[in-house]
């Protein structure tokens, strides 16, 4: 790690083994940050696509429905959501523990 006072790369520069570098610039309040907006999308898409390919279409569809339902009922923790599902506390719910926890957590981890 180095500190660069040059105007183009002003801030802390973290040098990675493969020759890349990450620049941490000071914010208006003095906290240093790294702008990763271009990096995150590609990483998440690749990870989800990679994880998704390990499941059948039906398993992925069930996991997607479980995630949507979990968001609808108030973004409960996974453990609380499983408790609600297993306790039949959600009317007309066709989600099971198997459908919810097996794929959903792994696909969107």
Task: Give your account of this protein's structure.
With 109 residues, the protein is of the alpha+beta class. It has 2 domains: 2-33, no CATH class; 39-107, no CATH class. Helix content is 48%, strand content 15%. It has 4 helices and 4 strands. It has helices at 37-52, 57-72, 78-86, 97-107, and strands at residues 2-4, 11-15, 21-26, 32-33. The chain has a 4-stranded antiparallel beta sheet with strand order 1-2-3-4, with no helix packed on it. Strand 3 and strand 4 form a beta hairpin. Helix 2 (57-72) crosses helix 4 and helix 3 runs antiparallel to helix 4. The protein is elongated, with a radius of gyration of 21 Å. It starts with a strand and ends with a helix. The model has no long low-confidence stretch (mean pLDDT 77).
Write the layout of secondary structure elements.
Layout: E1 2-4, E2 11-15, E3 21-26, E4 32-33, H1 37-52, H2 57-72, H3 78-86, H4 97-107
Antiparallel strand pairs: 1-2, 2-3, 3-4
Assign an overall shape.
elongated
Question: Strand count, sense and closure of the main sheet?
Answer: 4 strands, antiparallel
Strand order of the largest sheet: 1-2-3-4
Q: Which blocks of ≥5 consecutive residues have pLDDT under 50?
A: none
Terminus-to-terminus distance? 30 Å
Number of helix segments?
A: 4
Range of strand content: 5-15%
- Total strands: 4
The tally of structural domains comes to 2
Any key phrases for this structure?
109 residues; 4 helices; single chain; alpha+beta; 2 domains; four-stranded antiparallel β-sheet
């Amino acid at each position: 790690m180095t500190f660069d006072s040059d105007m183009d790369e002003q801030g802390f520069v973290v040098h990675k083994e493969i020759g890349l570098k990450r620049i941490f610039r000071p914010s208006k309040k003095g906290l240093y940050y790294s702008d990763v907006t271009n990096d995150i999308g590609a990483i998440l898409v690749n990870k989800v696509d990679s994880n998704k390919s390990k499941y059948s279409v039906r398993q992925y569809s069930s996991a997607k429905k479980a995630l949507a339902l979990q968001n609808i009922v108030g973004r409960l923790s996974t453990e609380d959501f499983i408790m609600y599902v297993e306790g039949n506390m959600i009317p007309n719910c066709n989600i099971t523990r198997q459908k919810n926890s097996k794929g959903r957590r792994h696909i969107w981890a």
